[in-house]
Amino acid sequence: MSSYLISNVSVVGAAPTDVLIRDGVVAAVGAGLDAPEATVVDGIGLVALPGLVDLHTHLREPGREDAETVESGSRAAALGGYTAVCAMANTSPVADTAGVVEQVWRLGREAGLVDVQPIGAVTVGLAGEHLAELGAMADSAARVRIFSDDGHCVADPRLMRRALEYVKAFDGIIAQHAEEPRLTEGAQMHEGEVSTRLGLTGWPAVAEEAIIARDVLLAEHVGSRLHVCHVSTAGSVEVLRQAKARGVRVTAEVTPHHLLLTDSRAETYDPVYKVNPPLRTATDVAALRAALVEGVIDVVATDHAPHAVEDKECEWAYARPGMLGLETALSIALDVLGPRWDLIAERMSRTPARIAGLEGHGLDPAPGVPANLTLVDPAARRTIEPAELASRSRNTPYARMTLPGRIVATFLRGEPTVLDGKALK
Predict the structure, then answer these.
(1) Which of 37, 222, 235, 275 is 20 to 30 A distant from 16 in Cα terms?
(2) Residue 144: HSE in the Cβ half-sphere, 13 Å Cα cutoff
(3) pTM of this prediction?
(4) Choosing from 96, 115, 303, 311, which is the catalytic residue?
(5) Does the annotation count 284 as an active-site position?
């Protein structure tokens, strides 16, 4: 295998040092390292982070390869600094059997750009009626540990309880899309002042908060692990804070777009801002940011949701909800949190890797650990041009925005997938 010497780089914001990568692992960290055989990567002004890990990615394959494939999504992830992503189950066919999750897992291995860990469906066909083959998916080559009907809520409390009980046997996780469907029927955006002014059917915050409250009680009763997807309201933060104070085994994620954008974006009627859950108010955004810093919200997860042109460039009411996120997430985190490198590493790498049980990921560069890392230029600023993104889709809400930070290199087990900001595959 190749050897690389990253010179004069700041490891998670510390003083500049050298990092030597050899045979897929970090061989040494220290000033003045000498390795004549190694390819030198100039790290002056760069920050080395453990490779980012995304708990919430939609790769669309199988079934919607016009919007994304495992390969194109993996390339976008590598360019965003990721070394592992968890692929959601709402494909076609749905990833509700061992065969489908193994297909996604193998496609990820063939692409070789990031580790793709499939998430299995909780219910057959995401229909919310019968449990899927949770045990078979857990025992498959993909070793699924997280299950989610994301895009749909497991609304039946008895079924949710059964799912939590089932996965407890192998320390699995149910990741809930918290949305009471009877409160969001026909909803187009956040219910509030803007929706009233625009005449669009509102999506109340309580539709999310009620399901989270129910599910933390179920998880507490069962003693199982619950993960809450894309938290978006201040009320949800309070429910989570109280649950964690009681010792409930619950974790939660927030998306970059819910940390930055508000429901005022809908005033343009541009469907790129239509997302599930919807963009909320400035008060919600402030609460989410504070909760992320505090640790009530555990991770930043992209909810990368690519869509084909015909599914987004249409009337608001008919547009599919979702936004791209993989190639811009770290920049949004920098914009929101500033250069708090240890916090960024915790929320975007260490904790998500720990939640998903991804061995070798989420580890700071240190002698002997797998060389899964990313190099960031914090001084760079870049303007987001949709046509330059690696994703097959173009539905980014950050088009022509200038954001801080640039991914210079990404290494997966010691081999670069990105160098000088360019994907190598």
Answers:
(1) 37
(2) 33
(3) 0.98
(4) 303
(5) no
